[in-house]
Amino acid sequence: MWVQVGMLVVVGFGGMIGSNRWRPREGEVVGQRPVVKRPQRPERRGDTIPAEVLRLAPWARLRQGFEQGRRRFRAWFPHAPVALVVVLLGLMNLGPVLHLVRIGVLATPLAIHRLTAEAWRSAPRIVAGFLLFGAAGGLLWRSRLSWTVALLLAAATLMLAWRSGAGVSQALTVFNGVVLLVLLVFQRDFDRSSLAAGTLFAIVSILLLLGYAVFGAFVLGRGFAPPVTTLTSALYFAVVTMSTVGYGDIVPKSADARFFVMSVIILGITVFATSISAVIVPAMTARMQDLMKGGGKRMMRKNHYVIVGATSLARNTCRELLARHLPVTVVVASAADAGAFGDADVLVGDASDADTLRTAGVPDATAVLALRDDDSENAFTVLAVKELNAATRTVAAVNHGKNMARMHHVRPDLVIAPQVMGGELLAMALNNEELDSDTVMRRLFRKGETDA
To answer: Does one domain contain both 184 and 163?
Structure first.
């Protein structure tokens, strides 16, 4: 059997080699039919990247593939796993409620009363569990506010678990510590903030906490001295406790009332600290971004010019377009290059990425100018623009003469090569050759549809 397998492998390998080395020529008779050369389909404008473009820069292609893989990986990591562990922590904190629902149907009224009392003593953990569910939803959007809420809630539940001692399982305490560690490790990956979302969260959190404090004080009213028998007294005690004033006129006496007051204090500090950070941090972040961008302002990205790159040619082109009161959006790779464009609308991102170009308004742009130092990056930018809108005019800069012919395969509407043609024009001028405006414009600008 092994001999037969070996013979099959040898025959197959020989067939592969023979198929690569021998091919029928045009007009040669194979069997009973002459070999006829098939006509090649003409290349169309929307075809895939030509081989000349793919050979433009191997390292650039490798970098593009690596960047695409990294973006796909970053599309779900680490925010999705972190949100999952936060959801699991919320479920573990809802243990008393789940236990009550599971056996409450078959239990006697006395047992149900005891289970309800046990669940009420675990009310802080239950509230934290529901809040952790909401924080997990925000973590999926990489929200900085949700990360802060999840961190504070995890710390608060860990403190409550440690304070309760034997009433809480050791597994919950260990897992709570793991969640805290995970949130601290990936804190830099949750950097999205919104002033409107922060303000809404602050209002909703304060109202929920106030309702919890009023309802708890009214239900456990007999555990206070003097007893809380009206909603007005419960509201007064809730506000005094949440504000950490503590006049001392209403004091908790029973164990349940004291645990309840402890939960209100811990949750109150957490909610107020998070609310302040949710409102102030986005405002400060927006102000810092404006300062880093040199005071740039966001405009309506429609019927405008998109400049890609931070080269001297890109800066001069942006300045001249702004001087003619034309709308300009600049796409740069890093925030450090944004300050060089003054009051222009600046977007930081990868110009070869379709999402970045879509954010820059490329589908509605008048023209896109790829003016980076790397010719391969300019070629990929032109291809990405044509995928979004083939009608958008494209201008590509060429910095090396060997890439001039290759750039035409990308078919930009206009190719500009000031560094390449500058030397040729200078040599013509020094040699006293005829040099008029038509010659300069023809050599400086090349139409993308013509072959070099």
So the answer is: yes
Residue 315 reports pLDDT greater than 70: yes
367-370 and 345-348 as β-strands: parallel, antiparallel, unpaired?
unpaired
253 three-class SS: coil
What is the three-class DSSP state of 347?
Answer: strand
More confidently predicted of 332 and 409: 332
Choose the final residue of a domain: 142, 165, 192.
Answer: 192
Distance (Å, rounded) from C-alpha 252 to C-alpha 63?
A: 65
Query: What CATH number should be reported for the domain holding residue 243?
Result: 1.10.287.70
Distance between start and end Cα atoms, the chain: 61
Rounded to the nearest 10°, the torsion over CA 183, 185, 189, 193 is 50
Point out which residues pair with 30 in neighbouring strands.
33
Residues 6+ apart with CB under 8 A from 365: 301, 302, 303, 304, 305, 306, 329, 392
Q: Which residue has the tokens 């300045």?
A: 319
Q: What's the pLDDT at 119?
A: 56
For residue 232, how many other CB atoms are within 10 A of its CB?
A: 11
What integer best gives the mean pLDDT of the chain? 75
* Tally of structural domains, the chain: 3
pLDDT digits 0-9 by tens, 427-438: 776 777 776 666
Tokens of 343: 């009051």
**DSSP state at residue 248:** S
Rounded to an integer, what distance in angstroms lies between the CA atom of residue 315 and that of residue 344? 10
pLDDT at 39 over 70: no
- Collapse the DSSP code of 346 into the 3-class scheme (helix H, G, I; strand E, B; otherwise coil) and give the result: strand
Are 247 and 309 contained in the same domain? no
- Give residue 227's domain range: 194-254+262-292
Give residue-wise pLDDT tens across range 176-225.
889 999 999 998 888 776 666 677 777 877 888 888 888 888 888 889 99
CATH, residue 365: 3.40.50.720
Helix, strand, coil percentages for the chain (3-state, nearest 5): 65, 10, 30
Contact by Cβ (8 Å): 347, 360? yes
d(CA 230, CA 227): 9
The residue assigned the tokens 């009213």 is 221
- Report the SS3 class of residue 29: strand
Contact criterion met (CB below 8 Å) for 392 and 363: yes
Determine, yes or no, domain membership for 366: yes
Find residue 397's DSSP bridge partners.
Answer: 416
The closest of 132, 249, 145 to 197, measured between CA atoms, is 145
Q: Report pLDDT digits (tens) over 264-296.
A: 888 888 788 777 776 776 667 666 655 554 444
Pair 445, 416: CB distance under 8 Å: yes
